[in-house]
Amino acid sequence: MPDYSSPLTTDITSNTFTKDGLNTPSYQSNASESPLATANPNPNPYLTSAAIVPDFNGDGKADKVWVNSATGETQIWLMDGSTVTEKGSLGTYDVSSWTFNIADFNGDGKTDFLLHNKSTGENVVALIDGTTVASSASLERVDPASTASIGDFNGDRKTDILWHNAQSGENTILLMDGSTVTSSTALDNSDPAFTPTIVDFDGNGKSDIFFRNATTGENKVWFMDGDQATPFDLQSQDAAWTASLGDFNGDLKTDILWRNTQTGENKVWTMNGVLVNEGALTTLDANWQSSIGDFNGDGKTDVLWHNKQTGENTVWLMDGTTVSSEAVLGLSNPSSVASIGDYNGDGKSDVFWRNYQTGDNTIWTMDGTNVTETPTDSLSPEWYTF
């Protein structure tokens, strides 16, 4: 990656990256979808938006970004099914200082990067074209304690930035057009105990902000119209419940999969603004970990369950709050980590398995509950991805 004097040869990490592996990325507003990214037939941008699942060349097929935790080197892999069609190095960066979010700032259907230095507060937007940086620009510094979330708050199909300071509760919206900030607005402070996540509960194509207090279980939502926020309270959920986002009924409104980490209980909230329709699901013990995808291509997100102790895998095909079909899949290595994307562009989510012990990578091409397993290129264990 070219030297920007303060970032990209010195950086790029973390939309979901941690040096010890990866976290599951939060699904963001469906408004992030670019109207140009039409190659993939799945209508639900939770699965196809380049601001949610990496797609660096805009062909509607999920790609991979890799970071070497030892050297800071980064790579992009352009994917066609289980085949790596092109690899490109983006240079190196200081993994201890820089983090990144993926986005689509110019609405061209190709994944871009927002880079943030958590030591200095420096920020850079890098617009990506395939395996190269097409252009980059520095943004104003923010408090290093601030973290970024990506959404589309004005509904123009170009992703914007929410800066949230977890220490002070300050919130700022940057409306973006490519690497240009068209508007910067300070919102009301939120309680620092609440953590924001980007959603679209009312399905109007403009991102909203879901705030959760992980200690008290309180939940709030700010419905956004550009940089204008309208707050509402939601019903609380005990602190043992954790939230994953999807669209389980295919109405393009963000829904919530709730999992109780103590009891193993699971339930779904399908959302319509502040109205909640709740359905209980099967209880699974703490060894089971969920990932969200659309494995049958019906526009409704499904759930892949992976048992981290036994390597067992189960898929739930969802229809709102109901599991319409459930199937046991083959075993994978218990220590393998799944990242979900549509790697062949057929409108159905696939599973990229990364074994961080051996460096082996395998793709499960999915057709509902049917799996075709194919090995793909390997990388030594110090490389991590999402």
Describe what you observe in this structure.
With 386 residues, the protein is mainly beta.
Task: Quickly list its features.
1 helix, 48% strand, mainly beta, disordered N terminus, 30 strands, 386 residues, four-stranded antiparallel beta sheet, globular
Number of helices: 1
Shape: globular
Structural class: mainly beta
Amount of helix: under 10%
Q: How many beta-strand runs?
A: 30
Strand content: over 45%
The first-to-last residue Cα distance is 20 Å
Mean pLDDT equals: 90
Major β-sheet annotation: 4 strands, antiparallel
Low-confidence stretches: 1-37
* Strand line-up in the sheet with most strands: 5-4-3-30
Please state the CA-atom Rg, rounded to the nearest Å: 19 Å
SSE layout and pairing:
Blueprint: E1 17-18, E2 21-22, H1 45-48, E3 64-68, E4 73-80, E5 83-92, E6 98-103, E7 112-117, E8 123-129, E9 132-139, E10 146-151, E11 160-165, E12 171-177, E13 180-186, E14 194-199, E15 208-213, E16 219-225, E17 228-234, E18 241-246, E19 255-260, E20 266-272, E21 275-281, E22 288-293, E23 302-307, E24 313-319, E25 322-329, E26 337-341, E27 350-354, E28 361-367, E29 370-376, E30 383-384
